[in-house]
Amino acid sequence: MSSIPYPNPQAVFYQQYESVRRDEVVGILLSLFLGTFGIHHFYLRRTGLGILYCCFCWTGVTTFLGFVECFFMPGRVREFNAIQAAGIAAALGIAVPPFGWPVAVNVTVPPASAAAAGAAPAAGFAPSAGFSPVVAGFAPPQPGTLIACNRCHTTNPQGARFCAGCGTALS
Fewer CB atoms < 10 Å away: N or C end of the chain? Predict the structure, then answer.
């Protein structure tokens, strides 16, 4: 048996996510000051647009576009980060954790025997009609969550029975 403990998938997720995430302020500043050359597009891995801006930087149009795009950069950076998070979570086979660092949450759930017998719920606890307890840190898969193939690690849509990359049956 190995002396190395098995890593927590959420810890691996946060480690990989922190290495690929982009900062909104950096995106705004790149767009504002270096938008003429399309550096903000390279920052978000939009290489084609970055090259296009570099080709037309002498016209002055890209300067105006870079200034206008600095107002749209926060949304673009959030979208980029969400796509990266979904891809990492799919590769790890977990649901996308809620953003922000994990927080220890105490969840009060009545015992199954008390809930089944119709006993009075605990003080301050009133379950709704569709109540299902969730253990802190583990959520059921969200609709639209991607599934990663165990063989080739290609992401596939929820409900797919076969991998789009290699054709292996998904479990």
Answer: N
